[in-house]
Design goal:
By secondary structure, the chain is mostly beta strands. The strands form 2 sheets. The chain has a 4-stranded antiparallel sheet with strand order 4-1-6-7, with no helix packed on it. β2 and β3 form a beta hairpin. It holds the Pfam family TrpBP.
Length: 74
């Protein structure tokens, strides 16, 4: 059953090809969903019964209820 009261985050791509990867809950953490964002695109993500973590590759701004942070890409 999906928890529609889970926390949301907003990811804004600051460059082409930002990857957003959803990771599962449970004994074995696995990739279960990926998205690729172009510069300027937004993705609104929710933590649910199935999603315990979100990995972001690329230059992006991440907005949560705890504040805003930019990824560091070298």
């Amino acid at each position: 059953m999906t928890d529609f009261n889970g926390d949301y985050i907003v990811i804004k791509a600051k460059a082409q090809g930002v990857q957003v990867i959803g990771l599962t809950r449970g004994q074995d953490t696995k990739f279960h969903h990926t998205e690729k964002l172009d510069k300027g695109e937004l993705l609104i993500c929710q933590f649910t019964d199935h999603t315990s973590a979100i990995k972001i590759r690329g230059k992006a701004t991440v907005m949560t209820k705890f504040g805003t942070v930019d990824t560091e890409v070298e």
